[in-house]
Amino acid sequence: MIFAFGVAVCAFCSLTDSTQQAAAQTAAKVIFDTDFVVPPQDDGTALVLALHSPELNILAVTTVAGNDTMQRATSDALRVLEICNRTDIPVYRGANRPLVHIGSDWAKTVHGKWWSDEAPPLPPGGLAKRQAEQESAVDFMIHTVNSNPGEISILAIGPLTNVATAIRQDPNFAKNVKKIAIMGGALASLPGGGGNVTPNAEFNIWVDPEAAWVVLHSGIPLVFTPLNVTSKTNFSKQAYDEIVAADTPITRLIKDRMGPGFAANPNRHSNMYDQLTVASFIDPSLVQAKDLYVDVVITHGPDYGTTVGAAKQWEGGEQSVKVSWQYDVDNERFIQMFVNRVKQR
Amino acid sequence: MARLIPMLVLSMMWVLPAAVSSQAERPKVIIDQDARGPGSTDMNSILMFAQSPDVDVLGVTIVTGDQWVKEETAHTLRALEIAGRSDIPVVPGAEGPLINSKDESELWEQQFGALNFKGAWSPRTYHAPDIVPEMAEGAPTTKPLNEHAVDFIIRMVHAYPGEVTIWAGGPLTNIALAIRKDPAVVTLSKELILMGGGYNVTLAGIQRMNGRREFNWWFDPEAVRIVMSAPWKRITITPNDVSIKTNLSKEIQDRVSKVDTPLTRYLSKFSRSGYMWDEIAVAAFLDPSIITDKRQLYVNIDIDHGASYGQTIFVDKDVKVTSWWQLANVQFDLNLDKFYDTYVRLMTAPTGAGKVAARK
């Protein structure tokens, strides 16, 4: 079924890449774990990219608190799946709080809905007809991964609370996960490594540093799409125009949500975060990555939630873990891939 | 709260089991334990509850701490078989703490010196989590419930809203995972009771001195932070401070051995002299008058990964603190005679004395 879908897509799309056809035959089973909000939030268009990628067999979307509440992530994801005509993909509700991090007054002023259960705003066009599954995200992850050992990867583009909870609840889970692609982190030792919430911390890791610790030390192969690489991406009005020219149900939503920003400032450029995480999972040749020893600060001080890393372990970093850390990107090729897929019907 | 039944009525109830107070009146308890076996303070607490006609034990949820969850589960199943209480479900839980690890503890020891007790990570007795070493008390024939402790806790508090006491005698990993998975566990449960932490005591810590570095809390500090920052209706704590006033002496052990039941034979064989810990938290639940000094304090734990990682922190109740501190009722002294009497009375009761006739 995936193969047929892949062939059908390729018949209509401008890409005739034989690599894509081959990839569709061995589609990677993934769980899409997200603190989802509709575009322009990066999770929004990252999901659209994933839905239009025959290399991925998306088993489910699991939601977590981060950008906004878990409740909003759930209702927004259901709605986007409906607009994209992918109601075959179930949505499972996950954690509404990070493990340890308690929301401060300051946090609430900077993208702080992760410490809330307030009723979400209606998604564009209203709530989807379909509802989320009854089972929890963690339970779904555990039994799905354990019954397909070594086959399932996780695209983790929000705080890592759900993944960490699965690892800690079930002792077999970690060794059965194939790989996790993480949008998160920033290394000050590399260019573009300043933080985007506190001075040195990246938002996803900062919301739940303890969860990041658990995932880091789990033994699961990890690939990070951190601020070091996302800071080298560039999404411009030109790319936006090409997407909305396609005039599909989802590009109309993108136009409604992102149009005003570009109208006000046509020279606006933005970074791509979750979108690159998904794209580089599909095509690792889009990025450059190196193996580094990385750990996360979980002592509560000025650098809580900061990732720290180097080519070799260091004093105090004896527990650091070797991971793949992306640090550069072929932006032109990435944006082209993104645009070509998102604009597909 | 547990209904206090006069001793005379209690003894009559053993003679006439059919007259035992109806299941509906007994407080419902989930026992969350790092149930080291055979014989231990952990197992004693489970057995005291199992022997009591005044509680309805919904289940025993198991967590890694003193030993690994797999072997603890086996020891608990066997102990309950011996006590004639295999009707109580045994539910395995977390295999390890949230953040702390054997590796981290060894790095800490390199800087600050060896710890004298590390539970499942103790070098002298260390083995892999999957191994269940030979059981001197015999292997169990009964099986654990096919459900995770975390899900069992969530299911029970929803099944009996407002009624369930969560009683924790080990690291708080299962409970932390449960309340993060379903925050309603905090509001639907009746209260939280736990053995853990230390305040003004220079004994009983896991580096011998410094009772603030108490094993249960040190093993999973982040779980304690999660649990102790949640708005439970009531929190009651049995700390090291009151444990060090007790001794499971030969005299007490002999009082138990005088009565001959399968359970007392098990206790005679496996009891060791020394401080009592979890037993106090059970006795105090069944008879709060056993506690002669208790104070309300704001209580939490240090989770900075430095020299004091895992140590109890506490503040006077009249001090203004940030929102995540919770008030706890902390026990500091006890009536030793009453406590030992309760221990002996429960352990020497006829096998199955606590059994629930039928759960509706």
Compact overview of the structure:
By secondary structure, chain A is an alpha/beta fold. Chain A has helices at 2-12, 18-25, 42-51, 70-83, 105-109, 137-146, 161-169, 173-176, 203-207, 209-216, 227-230, 237-245, 249-264, 274-282, 331-342, and strands at 28-34, 56-63, 91-93, 152-156, 177-183, 222-225, 287-296, 307-310, 321-329. Chain A has a single domain (2-342), classed as Ribonucleoside hydrolase-like (Inosine-uridine Nucleoside N-ribohydrolase, Chain A).
How does this structure look, described?
The complex is a heterodimer of chains A (345) and B (360). Chain A has 345 residues and is an alpha/beta fold. Chain A has one domain: Ribonucleoside hydrolase-like (Inosine-uridine Nucleoside N-ribohydrolase, Chain A, Alpha-Beta Complex). Chain A has 15 helices and nine strands. In chain A, helix 3 runs parallel beside helix 14, helix 7 crosses helix 10 and helix 12 packs antiparallel against helix 13. The N terminus of chain A is likely disordered. Chain B is built from 14 helices and nine strands. A nine-stranded mixed beta sheet of chain B has the order 3-2-1-4-5-6-9-7-8, with helices on both faces. The longest helix of chain B has 14 residues. Chain B starts with 6 loop residues before the first helix and ends in a 13-residue tail after the last helix. At the A-B interface, helix 7 and helix 10 of A face helix 4, helix 6 and helix 9 of B.
Layout of strands and helices, then pairs:
The complex is a heterodimer of chains A (345) and B (360).
Chain A: H1 2-12, H2 18-25, E1 28-34, H3 42-51, E2 56-63, H4 70-83, E3 91-93, H5 105-109, H6 137-146, E4 152-156, H7 161-169, H8 173-176, E5 177-183, H9 203-207, H10 209-216, E6 222-225, H11 227-230, H12 237-245, H13 249-264, H14 274-282, E7 287-296, E8 307-310, E9 321-329, H15 331-342
Parallel strand pairs in A: 1-2, 1-4, 2-3, 4-5, 5-6, 6-9
Antiparallel strand pairs in A: 7-8, 7-9
Chain B: H1 7-15, E1 28-33, H2 41-51, E2 56-62, H3 69-82, E3 90-92, H4 102-112, H5 149-159, E4 164-168, H6 173-181, H7 184-188, E5 191-195, H8 215-219, H9 221-228, E6 235-238, H10 240-243, H11 250-257, H12 262-270, H13 278-286, E7 291-301, E8 312-316, E9 326-334, H14 336-347
Parallel strand pairs in B: 1-2, 1-4, 2-3, 4-5, 5-6, 6-9
Antiparallel strand pairs in B: 7-8, 7-9
Helix pairs in contact in B: 2-3, 2-13, 5-6, 6-9, 11-12, 11-14
